[in-house]
Amino acid sequence: MSEAVVARSAKLxxxxxxxxxxxxxxxxxxxxxxxxxxxxxxxxxLEYALIAAAVLISETWWNPLIYVLAVIVIGSRIxxxxxxxxxxxxxxxxxxxxxxxxxxxxxxxxxxxxxxxYRNSHFAHHRELNGEKDxxxxxxxxLEEFHFPAPPRVVLKHILQYFSGFKIKxxxxxxxxxxxxxxxxxxxxxxxxxxxxxxxxxxxxxGFWKLLLLYxxxxxxxxxxxxxxxRNVAEHYxxxxxxxxxxxxxxxxxxxxxxxxxxxxxNYHLEHHLFPGIPCFRLAELHRLLMSREPYPQMxxxxxxxFSGLLRDCASTKHDDPVAADTQAPALAxxxx
Length: 337
Known about the structure:
By secondary structure, the chain is mainly alpha-helical. It has one domain (2-335). It has helices spanning 2-5, 8-11, 26-32, 37-60, 64-89, 97-108, 115-127, 135-139, 152-163, 168-176, 179-182, 186-205, 209-236, 255-261, 269-274, 283-290, 296-299, 305-315; strands at residues 20-21, 250-252, 302-304, 334-335. Helix 5 packs across helix 7 (115-127). The longest helix has 28 residues, at 209-236.
């Protein structure tokens, strides 16, 4: 199945077309790139278990507060599954690529995304980082919520709109309508349609449609999309856009923020763009290593806290609208990783 899943865009790979600083040796990259399938499997099972536990607790001891907490937990764990899907899209889940792609599609289901389609769009994003051929970047051009600098009250207003579900058409519609996302094999498309149709019919016949609405659709349309908006801003907006070391950002944050917004190494987004072949479980180690290598500590965009440092970055006039994507970086020793 893996060869079939690799559509046109994904076949071009995830290497950035711009120069990457030569920060690691080939041996270091090889060591950090080792796949840990046991960790990946355990992480996926944990996310699904937390979702099941939230549903069980809410249904057993129902009250509005417990339900709201369940929605937060479920929405954040759908985000966590999206993070694991992201690793599978980069072939970092299992060494067997057929298994990698099969499990990748399973962990992607709660997000409504096909991993194969996400891979196409995401690889194009990696290659054409923040440029006119980057589908993730161009999708947000002209949207007010991605225009910076902006005062904290404006950023918080946009965050509230996403968490309230008012931006579902913008968030899900924009992603699912892009041509890279929709370029998936017919077999994958048929399997997804069969699954969702069967789930819908079964929920009506057996009477659990309300559970799907309360514990999937509501968390997906509110908390998940709210978290994804915060992550989108954190990953590529309100940064200097001068060279590859500040086209993305890394966020160092307390555990509760990482658990809610950026589990499984999603906060190390800059490191991921530099070395997309390194699994999420090794990104913290990669970050520590890069911080010991010049000029990374001086030139990397590192922010402290999603609800503190990120808001300050969004308001800073130093992080105005991006310069052209082909702006030349300062002199750096470069190579393709």
